[in-house]
């Protein structure tokens, strides 16, 4: 039976859209936007608009006018991407959330996998994943052991996973991540994978399903990246398909969704500790 305390705990306090930042979430990210001169734009609204686009998947011209002209939002969206804002926020929050969950701030174990995604009708790179029979792009993602994205790379779907692994490790290193080991599935083997792992001093640990097991069975630790793909693809409609015209824009969409997840996790941990 619902009590008054339950109603207060679960009351929807959002004044407009569920994707909007709460006051606490805005207070967390606002210092990172202190270097911008917004002129007539409200930076909080620009961030809210980016999150709204990610959650709803609406076209740019369908963006609600609450956020201001869509052209203004697009300008700030592209500026945030060019400045690497989402990666900076994600790096800080990943370390903070891991510490709050009793894990070292710097992940020692990473998980690597890819997801083939059907492309929309827009122009841009695409290919065919012959194994999964998907024509579109492939998202190559490296996460920590808690499932938060450390690096992402988008290629045509016909690019082999081992070819992209080296590029992804390079990108993670540029972002300041230096895991000691990486969990992968059976496709990540061969000379290219060995060379990429050796370049970054990584111990590649292949996890495969036992031969006697029939059907689906989650593998220890590696299931977290599958959960990450599921969360990104189902809770953020802009990621249900590939709607972007460039790999950089597609990678940015992953970064925005990852930042939103981290913000929610960070404040959920704070609320639990309070």
Automatic annotation (TrEMBL):
One of its GO terms (molecular function) is DNA binding. Residues 106-257 form the Transposase IS4-like domain. One of its GO terms (biological process) is DNA transposition. Residues 21-89 form the Insertion element IS402-like domain. It comes from the Bacteria. This is Transposase IS4 family protein. It comes from Methylorubrum populi (strain ATCC BAA-705 / NCIMB 13946 / BJ001). The lineage of its organism: Bacteria, Pseudomonadati, Pseudomonadota, Alphaproteobacteria, Hyphomicrobiales.
């Amino acid at each position: 039976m619902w009590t008054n305390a339950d109603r207060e705990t679960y009351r929807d306090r959002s004044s407009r859209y569920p994707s909007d930042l709460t006051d606490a979430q805005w207070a967390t990210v606002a210092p990172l936007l202190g270097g911008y001169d917004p002129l007539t734009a409200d930076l909080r609204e620009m961030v809210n608009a980016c999150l709204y686009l990610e959650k709803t998947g609406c076209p740019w011209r369908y963006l609600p006018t609450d956020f201001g002209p869509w052209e203004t939002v697009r300008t700030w969206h592209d500026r945030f991407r060019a400045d690497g804002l989402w990666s900076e926020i994600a790096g800080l929050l990943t370390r903070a959330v891991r510490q709050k969950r009793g894990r070292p701030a710097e992940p020692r174990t990473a998980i690597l996998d890819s997801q083939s995604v059907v492309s929309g009708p827009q122009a841009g790179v695409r290919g065919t994943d012959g194994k999964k029979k998907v024509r579109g792009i492939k998202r190559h993602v490296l996460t920590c052991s808690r499932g938060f994205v450390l690096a992402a790379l988008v290629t045509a779907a016909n690019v082999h996973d081992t070819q992209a692994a080296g590029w992804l490790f390079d990108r993670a290193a540029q972002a300041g991540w230096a895991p000691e080991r990486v969990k992968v599935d059976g496709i990540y083997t061969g000379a290219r994978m060995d060379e990429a792992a050796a370049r970054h001093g990584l111990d590649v640990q292949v996890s495969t399903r036992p031969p006697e097991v029939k059907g689906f069975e989650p593998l220890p630790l590696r299931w977290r990246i599958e959960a990450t793909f599921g969360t990104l693809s189902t809770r953020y409609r802009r990621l249900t398909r590939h709607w972007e015209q460039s790999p950089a824009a597609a990678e940015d969409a992953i970064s925005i969704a990852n930042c939103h997840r981290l913000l929610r996790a960070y404040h959920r941990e704070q609320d639990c500790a309070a």
